[in-house]
Design goal:
The protein has 199 residues and is an alpha/beta fold. It is built from five helices and 14 strands. The longest helix has 10 residues. The two termini are 26 Å apart.
Length: 199
């Protein structure tokens, strides 16, 4: 399976997306990982040739996906070609805006209710994996840490940290996407990443 993933497209990139021939790239499913504005998401819709599933980022409006008829997988599980995915929107709460952000207590409670899956699709990552644990904006979510410890998903694919990086988190491989990439899932829990564009 080949996963097309977009995340954190804060800078203008509508022209970049429009100039890439997505219809001739090889991928099976698309996930948007949050912090992508309305017009950019609409451009992705118009250029991508497969089903799009999404989680929201901490800068997104709650009605963003429904306004575009994009299927949210926040707190939902889907199965595609024998692989299961579960989603989680938002980041750690660092301000009072009415945007997808969670306190650590909320994240723990929500993640307790998530079903086990092969791959966790999220905007944020496990607590303390990238940023300092004292940095409320980039400390990660304790709920994700507990989910990974309990269910050991193969991958956690997310954004939020504005970098392309792969880290091991317990038995789970953490893939941070910034921009657009295709992740090819192979047999025996192997994968390859091709970055389509980044910043």
């Amino acid at each position: 399976m080949k996963i097309l993933a977009f995340s954190d497209l804060h800078t203008p990139c509508i022209e970049t997306i429009s100039n890439i021939d997505f219809k001739n790239l090889n991928y099976d499913i698309c996930f948007t990982l949050g912090d992508i504005d309305f017009e950019t998401l609409k451009t992705i819709q118009n250029n991508v040739k497969c089903s799009i599933y999404a989680v929201l980022g901490n800068h997104d409006e709650y009605n963003l996906l429904s306004d575009l008829n994009i299927q949210s997988i926040d707190r939902k599980k889907i199965n595609v070609a024998g692989i299961s995915f579960v989603g989680l929107s938002g980041s750690s709460r660092y301000k009072l805006d009415n945007k997808p952000m969670l306190t650590q207590t909320e994240s723990i409670q929500i993640c307790k209710e998530l079903e086990p899956a092969d791959i966790l699709i999220s905007h944020d990552c496990a607590f303390g994996l990238y940023g300092s644990k004292s940095d409320n904006t980039h400390c990660g979510l304790k709920g994700i840490s507990k989910y990974i410890k309990k269910y050991r998903p193969w991958l956690n694919i997310h954004g939020h940290y504005h970098q392309n990086k792969i880290i091991k988190c317990r038995n789970t491989t953490d893939i941070c996407i910034y921009g657009c990439a295709i992740i090819t899932l192979n047999y025996n829990y192997r994968f390859e990443i091709k970055h389509i564009f980044s910043y």
